[in-house]
Design brief:
CATH topology of the largest domain: Dihydrodipicolinate Reductase, domain 2
Distance between the termini: 49 Å
Helix content: 25-40%
CATH superfamily of the largest domain: Dihydrodipicolinate Reductase, domain 2
Number of domains: 3
Shape: globular
Strand order of the largest sheet: 8-9-10-5-4-11-12-13
Largest sheet: 8 strands, mixed
Structural class: alpha/beta
Strand content: 15-25%
CATH class of the largest domain: Alpha Beta
Number of helices: 13
């Protein structure tokens, strides 16, 4: 047998093992509301090839691929446990098991590592929490996809309705089509049908009522059986407490804005300051995509090295608030053709840092350039640190942060020397550190941070909504503090 034959046989064997993992992952998700992760990457509803590719990510940790033969025993051990709703990282289980010298069996080690999700410690699934989308644009549709994907056993978040302005004949059909197909993010994973008579879109069994209104005051949510709901405003029309409070009607308990909030509206970056929210807070903002991209790595650098001052330059994809061709716009430069020009514009991300990181004393400035790509941006974060360091030390530190710290869902890390913006479409992290581009000289560090300003940001929005709804399930093994 040739070497090539050996490689092919090995691949087929791993395919077979990955196939056997899919029903186990699916059953845990549907019946127990358990999301199986591999180094913070969900394996729910993933294909065989996707599962195998996710295992290759472990090269970031030990320099070698993590095999499905190593993780399958931990997955099998999980199925034998009486688990409650949780997120369980079998990659971290395998990694920590290797370093454990007590001689425990896989079954005993797994039971100990996830003890907080079993027996008297486990969270009991509730009835779920209603969610309403106000607006159905780029972020609204991606948030809808994520809510549908995460419906799981039905005990978590439930997308009940979307509120939009009427758009004429076949409006609901056209909106369903926009949910079904996306030029950037591809096809919806599942089935979508339309019940025009009842003004309902049915996506993977989730019935979503389409409510037509021009103003929050026109909607009676209780008429649709909606109660205690979290409303996600993705229109950006209202950004202060007074305006957003108009959403607080019978049936609506909290309002989450997908744009930077003004005045005393809390700007929340999940992973950084979400735990500062007061339980009775009804109005909050998820800040901007750029704020979510820069604040987690900025916090990581502040925690390790101290930051004296910094500047962020964002090279941002164009958005729908720009013109396709030159035309009138209230902003001087944004009226110029978005797909034909680089456009200097303002960004509020630097000033928003103070709301998310109030203890950071460093002055952070910022500016932005819109460029002719439809999605994925890069933030160049130039920092003066409180002490000198080396490129190797910063790389090792940020790699570890992305893998084992409480920020591992926000920060990703890539070493590929040929990576370009389109490679990060669909990334679920708020920020991806480009290791090859990192610059360090003495007390100066320049970080290059990729981010999917649509999908990665939408994932952060969902995390905030899960947190305020009480369905943000614990992760095991617990990340290092």
């Amino acid at each position: 047998m040739t070497v090539n034959d050996d490689s092919f046989t090995n691949w087929k064997n791993r395919e077979e093992i990955a196939e056997s993992m899919i029903p186990l992952i699916g059953k845990l998700h549907r019946e127990r509301d358990v999301t199986v992760l591999l180094h913070s990457r969900s394996l729910v509803n993933k294909s065989v090839v996707s599962i195998l590719k996710t295992h290759r990510f472990a090269r970031q940790i030990a320099g070698e691929e993590l095999s499905v033969t190593e993780t399958l025993p931990f997955l099998q051990a999980l199925t034998a446990l009486d688990l409650g709703p949780s997120q369980i990282d079998i990659g971290m289980l395998a990694a920590t098991y290797k370093s454990d010298d007590r001689g425990l069996s896989v079954e005993a080690f797994t039971a100990e590592a996830v003890a907080g999700a079993t027996g008297a410690n486990k969270i009991e699934g509730g009835e779920g929490r209603d969610v309403v989308l106000y607006g159905f644009g780029r972020i609204g549709r991606l948030v809808a996809r994520l809510l549908i994907e995460k419906s799981g056993s039905g005990n978590g978040l439930r997308l009940r309705a979307m509120v939009v302005r009427g758009g004429g004949d076949q409006d609901i059909v056209k909106r369903a089509s926009l949910l079904r197909r996306d030029s950037i993010h591809g096809q919806f994973q599942g089935t979508i049908t339309v019940d025009e008579a009842n003004s309902t879109i049915i996506a993977n069994g989730n019935e979503i009522k389409v409510i037509y209104a021009n103003d929050p005051s026109e909607v009676d949510y209780t008429a649709y059986g909606i109660k205690n709901a979290i409303l996600i405003d993705n229109t950006g029309k209202w950004r202060d407490r007074e305006g957003l409070s108009t959403h607080l009607r019978p049936g609506i308990d909290k309002v989450v804005l997908t744009a930077p909030g003004k005045g005393d509206v809390p700007n929340i970056v999940h992973g950084v300051n979400h735990d500062t929210l007061k339980p009775d807070e009804q109005i909050l903002s998820c800040a901007s995509c750029t704020t979510n991209a820069i604040v987690p790595p900025l916090k990581a650098m502040e925690d390790k090295y101290g930051v004296l001052r910094g500047h962020v330059e964002t090279v941002h994809s164009f958005t729908n608030d720009q013109n396709l061709l030159d035309n009138y716009h209230k902003s001087e430069r944004r009226g110029r053709s978005a797909p034909l020009n680089m456009v200097i514009t303002e960004t509020g991300a630097a000033s928003a840092v103070a709301k998310a990181l109030p203890d950071l004393k460093a002055r952070i400035t910022g500016s932005s350039i819109r460029v002719p790509v439809p999605d994925v941006s890069i933030a160049i974060l130039n920092l003066q640190l409180a002490r000198e360091t080396s490129r190797e030390e910063v790389l090792d530190y940020l790699r570890d942060v992305s893998l084992t710290s409480p920020l591992r869902r926000q920060i990703d890390f890539i070493t590929a020397p040929d990576a370009v913006s389109s490679d990060f479409i669909g990334s679920r992290h708020a920020s991806i550190i480009d290791a090859g581009a990192l610059k360090v000289e003495g007390d100066n560090a320049i970080l290059y941070l990729w981010y999917d300003n649509e999908f990665g940001y939408s994932c952060q929005v969902i995390r905030v909504v899960q947190h305020v709804s009480g369905v943000e399930y614990p992760t095991f093994p617990a990340p290092a503090v």
